[in-house]
Design goal:
3-stranded antiparallel beta sheet, 23% helix, elongated, OsmC_Ohr_Peroxiredoxin, OsmC/Ohrsf, Organic hydroperoxide reductase OsmC/OhrA, OsmC/Ohr_fam
């Protein structure tokens, strides 16, 4: 099995820290060398102690689920002979309180818009099957307890 890692780095800098008035900005470093500025969500920790320009863990969670679903969808579409020209998703995660009053990402809704072209046009049932199978195969969807829904659209472009 594969192992996946990331290095997360934070430094106090000049902040006092013990007064709880410190920056939550930090850095995610991935194995390929990419560095992503991260922070707590401004919905969780107010600005200036969070940086709304940076990626927060909740956004990354939603993006990772969307990305995993998309990658499986593209793979399955290609295997089934459907040419995909474009895939865009306006994914959204909703925070709620659980029975213990703790906040969690209770629902993630994927809203993919997929554009197909080529000699083989999928019908609505075929697109639904692709999304169903992508969800069933997505490693991350199989790893979480949040509800994950897909409310997508699709289009077919015939050669003019």
């Amino acid at each position: 099995m594969a192992t996946h890692g990331a290095t997360i780095t934070w430094q106090r800098g000049e902040d006092t820290f013990l007064d709880n008035r410190y920056s939550r900005a930090h850095l995610w470093r991935f194995d390929g060398g990419l560095e992503v500025p991260a922070s707590s969500s401004p919905h969780v920790v107010r600005v200036p102690f969070s940086n709304p320009a940076n990626v927060d863990p909740e956004e990354a969670y939603v993006a990772a689920l969307s990305s995993c679903h998309m990658l499986w969808f593209l793979n399955l579409a290609a295997m089934r002979g459907y040419r995909v020209d474009r895939y865009a998703d306006a994914a959204e995660g909703v925070m709620e309180k659980n029975a213990d009053g703790k906040e969690w990402v209770a629902t993630v809704t994927l809203r993919p818009h997929v554009v197909f072209s080529g000699p083989k046009a999928p019908d609505e049932a075929a697109v639904e099957a692709l999304h169903h199978d992508a969800h069933a195969n997505c490693f991350l969807a199989n790893s979480v307890r949040s509800a994950l829904a897909t409310q997508g659209s699709w289009a077919y472009q015939s050669a003019a």
